[in-house]
Design brief:
The complex is a heterodimer of chains A (176) and B (512). Chain A is mainly alpha-helical and 176 residues long. Among the domains of chain A are: 32-87, Electron transport complex subunit B, putative Fe-S cluster (3-methyladenine DNA Glycosylase II, Chain A, domain 3), CATH 1.10.15; 98-162, Alpha-Beta Plaits. Chain A is built from 5 helices and 4 strands. Chain A has helices spanning 2-25, 32-40, 54-63, 76-87, 115-119, and strands at residues 101-105, 125-126, 134-135, 155-159. In chain A, β2 (125-126) and β3 (134-135) form a beta hairpin. Chain A starts with a helix and ends in a 17-residue tail after the last strand. Chain B has helices spanning 129-138, 179-186, 188-202, 216-229, 251-259, 279-290, 321-327, 384-388, 395-403, 407-412, 423-427, 434-500, 505-511, and strands at 29-31, 38-41, 51-52, 59-60, 65-68, 77-78, 83-92, 100-108, 165-170, 206-212, 236-242, 274-278, 297-303, 311-316, 335-340, 347-348, 362-367. In chain B, the strands form 4 sheets. In chain B, strands 1-14-13-17-15-16 form a 6-stranded mixed sheet. The model of chain B is unreliable at 507-512 (pLDDT under 50). The chains are: A mainly alpha (176), B alpha/beta (512). The A-B interface holds A 42-45, 121-124, 138-139, 141, 162-164, 166-172, 174-176 and B 93, 95-97, 99-101, 375-377, 402-403, 433, 436-437, 439-440, 443-444, 446-447, 454-455, 457-459, 461-462, 464-465, 468.
């Protein structure tokens, strides 16, 4: 009995120590910059940037030499500027610069093919076969993934209007 | 006696801006002729906007419901006069953004006729407290001091809280404004009646009316009314005269002066057993309960050196500022800005075609000499703002955090305890627009919060979608497997049947 306990215990101890040592000695440091960049990106994994998701785009910037930091359409200029600040590079020109937008289905033109529903990364489009679809604006992340698949081009990006509820004070301008 | 301190306390800080009440304090409350058009916003209160229940073309009586309350903290909106709804559309309102809001546009029929079905209660004190609360709720009464918090909420305290004191806020500490003072001078009995109903709704015995000593006539009128009523009820109503100090009319500051107790940060007055209502709200409660009249008008002080004829006017909600200015003889040529509310906390209007709402206590026409916009200089860290802040915050650091976008630091510095009274900006020798920085910071923090929530929603939804896709895939696979198994079973059973009874074709079919 005691031999069994001792031998098994000893084995477990030896294995534990060995594993612990190995974990320290052969530790592979993940790139912290990838995490930092992922945290800035909008986490939609929409693929609009040409990479399979937000983390892959972050990896591409941090490790694979992707230099265009302005590929994230949902994040817009704001995210691009944050990335620029994080990496210490110059901000780049981006095509989108007109404030927040959402996708909008022109319901009279929609043929109800469900193509857009299938690609929406956040299931923000509702509708059924041969029924007009619509975008739930509060959930839309403006990733534009639905625009291309539409066979009748009835989806467009529209600006979100500023209301008394979403309006914010400007910062005081320093006059001298 | 009870919760009220025997000696008045003092709150930290505060300032003494010039009163300018002499411009309008002698002006008796006058009615205003019906304007040609009324613009009634559906959101005039703190909380959720009300939802329209009328449509274009409807004719309404005075007091008919226009918008129903949506959610727990919300208030109803009523037609201020009889007439026709000619439009329900976006109209510019008194908001710092100068943006529009959904409004009902009413063309008065000139009769100004109350809905004949609106009936009051003869003996309000015999009602159940809950019934009083419902009457107040359905009448759309909100705090008329300016904060526009739905009043019924503050008349129905949670069961586990005891209300020791009803504190009536008649301080009117904002310079220029005299509407509450005139109300007390002219309708002291109505005020007392309203207070009795409120005391009954709260099941409280003690009430203090706090008035600053720059309104001797109002104090005398209220004291007389209290003395006349004293024999009729067991409730103890007292007038307490307070030395002038801005911002004494702020709820938490007034409580500290009268009771000596401080409302802790992020707590409500009810947590220390006090409920505060504005004096004009008391009259609105009385009108709602005794006459069944919803809140459709309020008293507005029109004053400032830029107006030809200062006045205190009973104005229908939805009357446009333009019409009121015209009624008061127009603006003088050296006008600098028109402010809605008091000079310390009010907002300068972009346009004057905005409607008067429930929270609008004054319309100030200020000349260049009365208001100034001096250039901002660098903070010299003199600490004047720290001494002036009634909440004991450190305004200079908070402004710096807002200026340098250190939003985390800003919320750690208790930005949301700031009541935006403007005392700090008033004393600042460097003209730093401190309150502007705080408002900017508050909205920036709130919009950051909104973005954070949206981000969480996005992550959650994309996760749910992935799960759904995985589930669907699995289901497909399983169906495929099942189909395969079925086919195999069919084949097998077919073969077996063939083996057992190769001749019986019909039996095979029956098995399948």
């Amino acid at each position: 009995m005691i031999e069994a306990v001792l031998s098994m215990g000893g084995l477990a101890l030896a294995a534990g120590l060995g594993l612990g040592f190995a974990a320290k000695k052969f530790h592979v440091e993940g790139n912290p910059q990838v995490d930092n960049l992922t945290a800035l990106l909008p986490a939609t994994n929409c693929g609009n940037c040409g990479f399979p998701g937000c983390r892959p785009y972050a990896e591409a910037i941090a490790e694979q030499g992707e230099t265009n930091i302005g590929l994230c359409a949902p994040g817009g200029v704001e995210v691009m500027e944050k990335i620029a600040a994080l990496l210490g590079v110059e901000p780049v020109e981006m095509e989108v610069d007109t404030g927040p937008k959402v996708a909008f289905v022109r319901e009279e033109d929609c043929i109800g093919c469900t193509a857009c529903i299938k690609v929406c990364p956040v299931d923000a489009i509702i509708g059924a076969n041969k029924q007009s679809h619509t975008v739930v604006a509060e959930m839309c992340t403006a990733c534009k993934a639905c625009i291309e698949p539409c066979p009748v081009d009835c989806i467009e990006m529209v600006a979100v209007p500023t209301t008394v509820y979403s309006w914010t004070w400007n910062k005081p301008e320093v006059l001298h | 006696m009870g919760i009220v301190a025997s000696v008045l306390k003092k709150f930290h800080g505060g300032v003494h801006p010039p009163g300018h009440k002499d411009l309008s304090e002698h002006c008796a409350i006058e009615p205003m002729p019906l304007p040609k058009r009324l613009v009634v916003p559906f959101h005039q209160h703190l909380g959720a906007p009300s939802e329209p229940v009328v449509k274009v073309g409807d004719t309404v009586f005075k007091g008919d419901l226009l918008g129903g309350a949506a959610g727990g903290i919300s208030a109803t909106v009523h037609a201020p006069t009889s007439g026709t709804i000619v439009a329900i559309e976006e109209h510019v309102v008194g908001h710092p953004s100068g943006l529009t809001m959904l409004c009902a546009i009413i063309e008065p029929d000139g009769k100004d006729q109350w809905n004949p079905q609106l009936k009051g209660v003869d003996n309000p004190l015999s009602l159940e407290p809950v019934a009083v609360r419902d009457l107040v709720k359905n009448a759309g009464v909100v705090g008329l001091g300016g904060a526009t918090f739905p009043s019924f909420v503050k008349l129905s305290p949670p069961r586990d809280k005891v209300v020791d004191l009803l504190l009536i806020n008649a301080v009117e500490c904002e310079p220029y404004l005299t509407c509450d003072a005139r109300l007390m001078e002219e309708r002291p009995k109505d005020v007392i009646e309203g207070i009795r109903i409120m005391l009954h709704a709260l099941q409280t015995k003690e009430c203090v009316i706090g008035i600053e000593d720059n309104k001797p006539k109002a104090i005398a009128a209220m004291q007389n009314a209290v003395a006349a009523e004293a024999s009729q009820s067991a409730a103890a109503i007292r007038v307490v005269v307070l030395p002038v100090m801005y911002p004494q009319g702020s709820e938490k500051q007034l409580i500290e002066v009268v009771t000596g107790r401080q409302v802790p940060s992020r707590k409500l007055p009810i947590d220390i057993g006090v409920i505060v209502h504005n004096v004009a709200t008391a009259v609105a409660v009385r009108d709602a309960v005794c006459f069944g009249h919803p809140l459709v008008s309020r008293i507005v002080t029109v004053t400032g050196k830029g107006i030809n004829r200062p006045a205190n006017i009973e104005v229908l909600i939805g009357t446009q500022v333009d019409d009121i200015i015209a009624h008061c003889g127009g603006l003088k040529p050296d006008i600098h800005k028109v402010v809605m509310g008091g000079p310390m906390m009010g907002l300068a209007l972009h346009q004057t075609n905005v409607p008067v709402v429930k929270g609008c206590s004054g319309i100030l026409a200020l000349t260049r000499g009365e208001s100034s916009e001096k250039p901002e200089h660098s903070c010299i860290r003199c600490g004047s703002c720290v001494n002036a802040c009634p909440i004991q915050l450190v305004p200079c650091s908070m402004a710096w955090f807002a200026k340098t976008e250190q939003l985390d630091q800003l919320s750690k510095a208790d930005l949301f305890d700031c009541i935006e009274c403007g005392s700090c900006a008033y004393v600042c020798p460097a003209n730093v627009p401190l309150v502007h920085y705080f408002r900017y910071g508050k909205l920036a923090l709130q919009s950051k919060d909104r973005e954070e929530k949206k981000r969480e929603l996005t992550i959650q939804r994309s996760k749910l979608r992935e799960e759904r896709l995985a589930r669907e895939k699995e289901e497909k696979e399983r169906k495929k497997e099942e189909m395969k198994a079925k086919m195999a079973a069919k084949k097998k059973s077919g073969k077996e049947a063939d083996k057992q009874n190769p001749a019986a074709e019909s039996g095979n079919e029956a098995q399948a």
